[in-house]
Structure to design on (236 residues):
């Protein structure tokens, strides 16, 4: 239950410890299954690979190896929304929606393998980015699931933070972090702009659609009342 009289940080801690063992086991399991499928398709494309085009936005954003920590921070970022969920029903809806988002991307990777163009960069000058390139090759480019999962998480996190009544500066941090992650996919040359835009569309669409499913039923499974509280409008 959401108690608007309880300080938001105490509500966040209560949510964090709700079904903590399910979250601790489920999040790594979902990530492991995704990566198993991702790397299989990366190394075994079923069809000829299409190289994604360069557009003006790619030329505008230069290579920035210092953006790598921001790129890698997604694994912390995507853990926040499930950490703030309080019921098994919400965890189920969220998990299925996130899995469906990833599956949609994997299906695209299977039927339309893509890669980014070869960049004219001396990777030896940026050993950390070079290691990333070695581990995660330039395939499975479009849509960027890095951006899609970040966008999905951002939509849900915005809703959950508003539900517990966080101040506006927390909401600003959420959106700034997401924008930074999206920027980092271009700045580290892991994706091109077309990949990022496609991932953005997939993640936002999946996030808002899954929230509509969440809001269409109450925690008890009954039709949700048209509440006047913050929970009723995730988009503002």
């Amino acid at each position: 239950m959401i108690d608007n009289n309880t300080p938001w940080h105490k509500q966040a801690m209560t949510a964090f410890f709700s079904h903590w063992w399910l979250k601790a086991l489920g999040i790594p399991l979902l990530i492991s299954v995704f990566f198993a499928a991702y790397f299989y398709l990366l190394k075994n494309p079923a069809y000829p690979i299409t190289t994604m085009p360069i557009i003006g936005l790619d030329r505008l954003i230069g290579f920035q190896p210092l953006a790598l920590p921001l790129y890698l921070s997604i694994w912390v970022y995507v853990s926040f929304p499930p950490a703030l969920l309080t019921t098994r029903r919400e965890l189920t809806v969220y998990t299925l929606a996130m899995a469906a988002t990833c599956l949609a991307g994997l299906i695209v990777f299977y039927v339309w393998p893509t890669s980014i163009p070869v960049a004219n960069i001396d990777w030896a000058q940026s050993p950390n980015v070079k290691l990333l390139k070695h581990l995660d090759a330039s395939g499975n480019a479009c849509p960027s699931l890095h951006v899609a999962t970040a966008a999905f998480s951002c939509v849900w996190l915005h809703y959950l933070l508003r539900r517990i009544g966080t101040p506006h500066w927390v909401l600003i941090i959420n959106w700034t972090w997401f924008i930074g992650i999206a920027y980092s996919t271009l700045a580290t040359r892991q994706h091109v702009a077309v990949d990022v835009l496609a991932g953005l569309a997939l993640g936002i669409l999946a996030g808002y659609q899954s929230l509509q499913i969440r809001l269409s039923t109450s925690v008890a499974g009954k039709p949700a009342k048209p509440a006047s509280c913050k929970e009723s409008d995730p988009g503002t």
Summary: The chain has a mean pLDDT of 87. The beta strands are 50-51, 114-115. Residues 20-43 form the longest helix (24 residues). The first strand starts at residue 50 and ends at 51.
